[in-house]
Amino acid sequence: MPSERKSVVATRRVASNSVVQIDEQKYLSISQASKLLGVSRPTIYARIKAGDLKAVRISTNTIRIPLSQLEAQPVRYSPSPKSIRDIEQAKKTMITRDEAIAKYDISQPWFYKKVKGAGLKAMRFGTKAYYPKDEIHRLFFKNSYPDVKEWISSEELAAKFGHTRKYICDQARQFNVPRVRTGRSLMISKLDWDKNVIDVPDLQKHYLTVEQAKKLYHIGQSRFYDEVNAAGLERRRQGREVFFRKTDLDRLFKDKSPKIPEYIRRDYITAKEALAFCHVGQKRFSEDTKAAGATKIRTEGNFVWYNKDELRRIFNL
To answer: What do you get for the CA distance between the two ends of the chain, in Å?
Structure first.
């Protein structure tokens, strides 16, 4: 009993000191711990409450933290943003320890070893520490494609386009987009994805199937494939359908169609069609229209057009 009282008295004598040594182990105050880790005093209290730090109560109003615990901390902490808006913005570019461990399939000791070696600083929001997402990615991502500069996970693409993760993985495989598996995630080359994989709404807006193209340009299948193959047009496959970019098809087919004013198509007829229209042969048609001074209009495509009303009068139709 006397020895216990003696120990309590000794503890109270050193309680006011900033650094306490008990049983050859040094203890720091809350203020010193916050300076050492680069965080605020409330953050230290929050970490004690969360169980991340083990504090020792050496008197009624005084607690100390073992220096060995603080030195073993894997990272220092950057000051956290104050406003809710800044906090939410910061979280978008950061990742928690557990998220990183799951994503890159690594152990917790290896995570802390690499983070500490790289000198990364984390931000603490509540009881969770967040790390810079890009820096964590550079530390732990196994890059099998050194030329790929930016990667995106299948989960992020699925959320962006509103598809399932399986659909995203199947599309990446179908278009042979560079991809690597890291832990539970499939990482996909963002540039190659954007270049090669077209989402369904975009396909419907900017691309045509073979059947749609044949109908739009009034051409047969043989001519269609002859010209697109000769021009080496890029094509996309979605399920069983093959798609071609509409602007490319316009250059091949639409621009070659003669631009005929609507009034000419309505009120005039081509010389070739006029023979059937007037029920006469070529010789008589030429002689009679020349003698009557029939109006002739020449348009794109080297077409010659005759006014229908004039032809009716000339040939008594």
So the answer is: 135
d(CA 186, CA 171): 12
The correct answer on CATH 1.10.1660 for the domain covering 200-254 is yes
Q: How far is the C-alpha of 203 from the C-alpha of 61, rounded, in Å? A: 69
Provide the residue ranges of all domains of the chain, joining segments of one domain with +: 2-73, 77-139, 141-196, 200-254, 262-314
- State the pLDDT at residue 159: 85
Q: Is the pTM of this model over 0.70?
A: no
Specify whether the CB–CB gap between 133 and 122 falls below 8 A.
Answer: no
Q: What is the pLDDT of residue 4?
A: 45
And the tokens for 148?
A: 């790929």
pLDDT at 183: 67
Q: What is the 3-state secondary structure (H, E, C) of the chain?
A: CHHHHHHHHHHHHHCCCCEEEECCEEEECHHHHHHHHCCCHHHHHHHHHHCCCCCEEEECCEEEEEHHHHHCCCCEECCCCCCHHHHHHHHHCEEEHHHHHHHHCCCHHHHHHHHHHHCCEEEEECCEEEEEHHHHHHHHCCCCCCCCCCEEEHHHHHHHHCCCHHHHHHHHHHCCCCEEEECCEEEEEHHHHHHHCCCHHHHHHHEEEHHHHHHHHCCCHHHHHHHHHHHCCCEEEECCEEEEEHHHHHHHHHCCCCCCCHHHHHHEEEHHHHHHHHCCCHHHHHHHHHHHCCCEEEECCCEEEEEHHHHHHHCCC
Q: According to CATH, what is the number of the domain 141-196?
A: 1.10.10
Report, as an integer, the average pLDDT of 15-30: 59
